Amino acid sequence: MRKVLILHPSDNIAVCLIDLVAGDVIEQDGFRISVLNNIPRGHKIASRDIAKSEGIIKYGERMGHAVTSIKLGEHVHVHNILGDRLSTEAS
């Protein structure tokens, strides 16, 4: 059973298809990830180490950048990334 989904070969994050628990090990598609934090389904996990200020890549496109170093297997969410999109909506 798949636990994560990498949407593009150049992505450095994967989408969790199930709730993951710290200590889980994911072995699929030729990679191995030890889960470092509890991560809810639908959230993202680092599929490799990501340096501070490095781009967060999803669908092969940069969606933001790391505000701190993120380790392989770590939860990737609002606490450690900042989105690059700017709102175009009028306030």
Written account of the structure:
With about 90 residues, the chain is mainly β. Helix content is about 0%, strand content about 35%. The protein has strands at about 5, 15, 25-30, 30-35, 45, 55-60, 60-65, 75, 80-85. It has a four-stranded antiparallel sheet, with no helix packed on it. A three-stranded antiparallel sheet has the order 6-7-9, with no helix packed on it. It is globular and about 35 Å long. The model has no long low-confidence stretch (mean pLDDT about 90).
Break the fold down into its secondary structure elements and pairings.
Elements: E1 4-5, E2 13-16, E3 25-28, E4 31-34, E5 44-46, E6 55-58, E7 61-66, E8 75-76, E9 81-83
Antiparallel strand pairs: 1-2, 2-5, 3-4, 5-8, 6-7, 7-9
